[in-house]
Design a protein that fits this description.
Blueprint lengths: L1 H19 L8 H13 L5 H29 L10 E8 L11 E6 L12 E4 L11 E10 L12 H8 L3 E14 L4 H16 L6 H9 L7 H10 L9 H20 L2 H6 L2 H19 L4 H18 L6 H15 L7 H18 L7 H24 L1 E3 L2 H23 L6 H21 L5 E3 L8 H11 L10 H10 L11 E5 L8 E4 L4 E4 L6 H12 L7 E4 L4 H4 L2 H5 L11 E4 L13 E4 L5 E4 L2 E7 L15 E5 L4 E4 L5 H9 L7 E3 L11 H7 L3 E4 L12 H9 L3 E4 H4 L2 E5 L3 E5 H4 L3 H7 L8
Parallel strand pairs: 3-5, 10-11, 11-12, 12-13, 17-18, 18-19, 19-20
Antiparallel strand pairs: 1-2, 1-4, 2-3, 4-5, 6-7, 8-9, 8-21, 9-10, 14-15, 15-16, 16-17, 21-22
Helix pairs in contact: 1-3, 1-12, 2-3, 5-6, 7-16, 8-10, 8-15, 10-11, 11-12, 12-13, 13-14, 14-17, 15-16, 17-18
Length: about 775
């Protein structure tokens, strides 16, 4: 019976996963045919046929369930006829407002129909300080300019649109005017309590360095943690601790249950009326619920509570049940409750690590000392998380096992309980103790980062390697002396020795990255890599570093910073380590920046852009066409570096933000025809003159522009001029990152077309014909 139960779960979850990989939501009859076929097969008496029928039934039900939930969620998305419209919306602030570089940001829940019967559950609102202050639970009447969900799509990096889907955010709005309504939203009573607790911590720890960490550990708000601290936590692999994580909820529930069990057994009258074990279970669940409510019942927290509830129900039955069965039941409950959970790396990390810990514990033989159990648990957790971290992020913090071995007991057993008790203690002493203990933890983290070997950097493995690696981990966690245990190491080898794709001589690739309103182009030859511009500041962590890791690039031969505009050089400090993070090794910076620009305060070899500069890498020629010597540039755009790349067959031109005057100068100097051109100045109406286009005669023209940007780039007249010349138009705001492989012929890849998803489909259909 248990085997069939596990087979059903092991098939239901893949059914949900298959739906989440679809480019568009398929017709319902797919699932109906699967269910009908399975029901017919179940009538067969043959055991194998029945097993196949159970698997087919579970897959079909999982697919259908996820399909239905996806249809409901996608129906929430903003209708295309409301995109770009400014509408009045009445509702309340349904989360803790977050500070950003551009002003407050918060989730807004409408209370009445907006237009055409549209009533989304959640809208993300970008505000400015002049309209605020905005407090959690307040009711407002906002005039919002609405946009659909949209995020950058690159070969690697954070999938923002997937995150919006998981959070059930249906649109993005920017405030044009606002009217506060005096009444508070009754549905936001818990949110107001959380806001009051956050203010209590801020007042108790006004100047404390780790005030933001204490807030994160108590009410789940991570917005107050400085960036340099987050980077240190990521580099040491302890980010999972700096939140109301499943580990903290489980440990606090266990502590509460242990205390109640200890006390209950020593009060005979209580023990006779109600079993102490069941009282302890109730106490643990209540503790988990209260702590999760403090966190605002975020999606990861909901998953943990569900897991604990399932485990508690299984234990309440007081009947023997395999631990694997409890784990599988929790997995099924979470996926049924939230079929979008399978899109989260955190979901897979938590379930697979817990699963392997159960496996490792079941394989222990004989009496084991407590310190051996602790070491074994750390080893199992580290090895189990290794493949997922390498596949998802292309790196693994080598100091993570040591950092976690110290940080987990201190943060989970001391800092978090003290911080929670400090919410009730009026003097603030306990909060101060919790903050100081965490300061000692951070000293240890900084010591770990001083080690020479910090990260395991490899070429990002393929997802197809993951099942083999997981089987290898299962073998490694077998007891010592098992004959097949050594095969586990063999199965893990593909993770570390994934070959880096190599280009032939005389061939290059160029990826015009999707960096919103800005420009960044990654160029690779057989043995060299060059990055032309970086996009805005936010693209450093979100786009550039993940793309470099995924491409197996651990150092750049050249970083070209075309001119002094933030949409072109904003993320350069991230690459150079000037924002407190770890720098990417760069051999040379080529630029047209002012002499005392802060970016140039680095010991890296530097050279100003000049006409006539050229170099040759692996049979590919690179030539700088601008600035002309002593040219009286009018502005930074006119000073931009212009790079031409060509092999024996084709060429690429990156003209930054130059205008018509500079284009004319280039044509007069003998600008040759070019197959691929990155449209100057993102397709501005003051660039891409008829003369320039006729001289180039490009086959492909790429517009690197932000989604519904307020500059209205690219201008329709510019697009029309290029189209009239017979070029193929490509836009990063519609197609994501655009990659070219240039050899004897040109191959083009559009990132949104490589791995399309049904939530992308809804977005791209609203991209054209909308007034910003």
């Amino acid at each position: 019976m248990l085997s069939r139960y596990l087979l059903f779960i092991a098939s239901f979850v893949p059914g949900v996963i298959v739906l989440q990989q679809q480019a568009s939501l398929p017709p319902w009859w797919w699932a109906a045919v699967g269910v009908g076929t399975a029901l017919v097969m179940l009538r067969a008496r043959h055991c194998v046929i029945q097993w196949v029928a159970i698997a087919l039934l579970a897959i079909s039900l999982g697919f259908a369930w996820a399909h239905w939930r996806a249809e409901i969620r996608m129906a929430q998305r903003i209708p295309s006829n409301l995109v770009g419209q400014t509408l009045w919306v009445t509702g309340y602030i349904s989360d803790l407002p977050q500070a950003s570089r551009f002003g407050p940001r918060f989730v807004f829940t409408p209370e009445a129909l907006i237009a055409n019967g549209w009533l989304p559950q959640r809208i993300q609102v970008n505000a400015s300080d002049k309209h605020g202050p905005f407090l959690a639970g307040e009711r407002w009447r906002l005039q919002l300019k609405l946009k659909p969900i949209h995020g950058s799509v690159n070969p690697a990096g954070f999938d923002l649109e997937s995150w919006f889907l998981q959070q059930n955010i249906a649109a993005i709005g920017s405030i044009k005017s606002a009217e506060r309504i005096n009444e508070l939203a009754g549905a936001a009573w818990l949110l107001r309590i959380r806001a009051a607790l956050r203010e209590r911590i801020v007042q108790a720890l006004p100047d404390a360095s780790y005030q933001g960490v204490i807030v994160a550990l108590t009410i789940g708000d991570q917005s107050g943690i400085p960036k340099e601290q987050w980077q240190r936590f990521a580099q040491t692999g302890i980010t999972h601790l700096i939140s109301i994580s499943g580990l903290h909820i489980t440990l606090l529930a266990a502590i509460s249950a242990s205390v109640v069990l200890f006390a209950w057994r020593r009060i005979p009258r209580l023990a006779q009326r109600f079993a102490a074990q069941r009282a302890a279970l109730i106490a643990g669940v209540i503790t988990a619920l209260i702590y999760s409510l403090l966190a605002g019942m975020a999606v990861p927290t909901q998953r943990t509570v569900l897991m604990l509830l399932v485990a508690a129900l299984c234990l309440w039955r007081a009947k023997p049940m395999a631990v694997s069965g409890i784990w599988a039941a929790a997995l099924l409950a979470v996926v049924v409750f939230d079929p979008f959970a399978v899109l989260s790396v955190g979901f897979w990390l938590s379930f697979l690590v817990v699963g392997f810990l159960i496996w490792a514990g079941a394989n222990r033989i004989g009496d084991v000392k407590q310190w051996q159990v602790w070491v074994g648990t750390q080893w199992a957790a580290t090895v189990a998380s290794l493949p997922i971290l390498l596949v998802a992020f292309g790196q693994f913090p080598m100091v993570s096992p040591v950092a976690n071995a110290v940080a987990i007991p201190l943060v989970s057993m001391l800092v978090t309980p003290l911080a929670l008790l400090g919410l009730l203690e009026p003097t603030g002493t306990l909060l101060h103790w919790a903050e100081r203990i965490f300061a000692w933890v951070d000293v240890m983290l900084q010591w770990c980062l001083s080690w020479t070997m910090i990260d395991l950097k490899i070429n990002t493995p393929s997802m197809s390697i993951l099942p083999i690696a997981m089987l290898g981990i299962a073998l490694l966690l077998l007891p010592r002396g098992m004959p097949a245990r050594w095969l586990g190491w063999v199965m893990l080898l593909p993770l570390f020795f994934t070959p880096k794709p190599t280009l032939p001589v005389n061939q290059f690739t160029a990826h015009v990255l999707d960096v919103g309103q800005g420009l960044s182009v990654l160029v690779q030859t057989q043995n060299h890599a060059l990055l032309f511009d970086t996009g805005q500041f936010a693209n450093g962590e979100r786009v550039l570093l993940p793309v470099l890791r995924q491409a197996g690039i651990h150092a750049l031969d050249k970083l070209i910073l075309s001119h002094n505009d933030l949409d072109h050089i904003g993320a350069a400090p991230v690459l150079l380590g000037q924002d407190g993070g770890r720098a990417v090794p760069i051999a040379q910076i080529v630029h047209s920046l002012p002499p005392l620009h802060p970016i140039l305060a680095t010991p890296i070899v530097q050279q100003a852009c000049q006409t006539g500069q050229s170099w040759r890498w692996d049979g590919v020629q690179f030539s700088m066409l601008w600035l002309r010597p002593k040219y009286p540039a009018r502005d930074d755009n006119a000073k931009g570096c212009v790079l031409r790349i060509n092999n024996a067959h084709h060429s690429l031109l990156i003209p930054a933000d130059i205008g018509r005057l500079e284009e004319g100068e280039l044509v007069a100097a003998g600008l040759p025809p070019t197959d691929i051109v990155i449209a100057p100045h993102h397709g501005s109406k003051n660039s891409s003159s008829e003369l320039f286009i006729q001289a180039l005669q490009p086959k492909y023209t790429v517009f690197s522009a932000g989604f519904l940007n307020h500059f209205r780039h690219p201008h329709p007249d510019v697009e029309a001029r290029y189209a009239a010349a017979g070029t193929q138009l490509l836009r990063t705001d519609q197609m994501g990152a655009i990659g070219f492989t240039v050899g004897e012929r040109i191959e083009v890849q559009q990132q949104r077309a490589i791995a399309p998803r049904y939530w992308y489909t809804a977005t791209t259909s609203a991209l054209t014909g909308i007034t910003p």
